[in-house]
Design a protein that fits this description.
Blueprint (H helix, E strand, L loop, with lengths): L4 H6 L10 E7 L5 H8 L5 E4 L2 H6 L6 H7 L1 H21 L6 E5 L2 H14 L5 H17 L6 E6 L2 H11 L9 H16 L8 E6 L4 H10 L1 H4 L3
Parallel strand pairs: 1-3, 1-4, 2-3, 4-5
Helix pairs in contact: 4-5, 5-6, 5-7, 6-7, 6-9, 8-9
The chain binds thymidine-5'-triphosphate.
Length: 227
Amino acid sequence: ILRSGYIRNFQSHQHSSMETISICVEGNIGAGKSEMLNFFAKDPTIEIISEHVKKWQNVNGHNMLDLMYKDPYRWGFTFQSYVQLTMLQNHMSKSAKPVQMMERSIYSAKYVFVENLYKSGLMPSVDYEVLTEWFNWATNHLDFHVDRIIYLRCHPETALERIKKRNRKEELNITLEYLQSLHEQQEEWLIRGCYGKHAEVLVLDAEQDLESMLEVFENSRNKILCL
Ligand code: TTP
């Protein structure tokens, strides 16, 4: 039986104990999502899904991430449609473990990145409409659910500092303004609920250094894992 992702998400609190708990980690570029997933990867009861950036850097020899940053108007649609596919593949993958934790979701790809490209004039409206049709169909007809969203919330300035430090070559020209727009989109989605509610949202303060963040993950373990 096909179930609506939306309807299932609203009913997340009722999920049966036989089902995997599905957690998505969200936050701006550089917020520390990978560090959080690395921390929980040590737990044998949790399946981690995190290698998405590597996929986007090599689509059968094409670095889609790089093309998108070099010319978003030309490549934004191609890139975002591939992101949408890889996110769907992640959502649909079945886990043998009781908890599945994934980096990002089809929702942030759409509500944060696609909306931002469109609103800032970097995506033609026909591209935006086609991506939206695909997104609406997939989230309404495919059988996946999200139980909890962890929002690693930090200032765009902090995100920029971390991006500079890690020095991913495709991201060298990311500006503070770009991160501010993405931050606004995240706030619209996860704090102000402008795109509807897909799952319970747990906000964690991601301003702190890595050591303090690891302590936060340890102390909030039960809340994060919906225990
Ligand atoms: P993130 O998914 O934010 O991964 P990250 O490694 O930056 O996360 P963290 O530092 O918190 O561990 O972004 C990866 C790159 O992909 C980044 O340059 C932004 C870009 N991206 C898009 O352009 N569109 C999208 O829909 C998504 C999800 C990411």
